[in-house]
Amino acid sequence: MKIIINGAGGFMGREVAKIVNERDDIEIAALVDIQGGEGILTSLADFTGKADVIIDFSHHSATVELIDSAEKLGIPLVLATTGHTPEELEYINTHTDKIPVFFSANMSLGVAMLVKLSRECAKIFPDADIEIVEKHHNRKLDAPSGTALMLANALTEERENAKLVFGRCGQAKREKGEIGIHALRLGDVVGEHEIIIDMGTETLSLKHTAHSRALFARGAIEAAAFIADKNPGKYTMTELIANS
Q: For the chain, which residues make up each domain, given as ranges?
């Protein structure tokens, strides 16, 4: 499998390249980064070779241009960035008719299982209080994290009348049906997400902790292998988990 790494100059882009260089079944077709550098293209539009998949770890603001370029090249795309605006998310959802696009707010297989288990808990305990707590390093720009929002969306799909509450302050009791989301930014925390489910007589906690950012690079490579031969359409960790 030949891959193009978009955002190759960033931490995650370099991590993907490092893993690829350690494997015999994958090779780098091109490195792309807006900042350029030795052996690095400054635009995906400059690529003229052959590739099986594009892995993007650049910035969400490049999403529209990236999808358009991938469509012109006819190469499947793995979007591994976070922090997308509603307009960018809409563009992703409406531009998967020409190429397969894999999109997830978190490229961890463990987080995918966390989402699945959270759904099950929301079904089994329909009246339980649910809170989401996420922790990340102090340089992270978006809060709450894309993963926390992904978990919240999964829970609200199971709870039709749920109301999301971002943080808590003031003088008001917790209302029935609320799902609280709390963001912590500390030091160099890679990523931690916990769903707390309180049934009144007992409490269940589901937690995922990322120990290294390498796991996101490995997940993106797994996603690339998954969509390399797929038909046009949008794919997520749900499909990847189901086929694992």
A: 2-107+213-242, 109-210
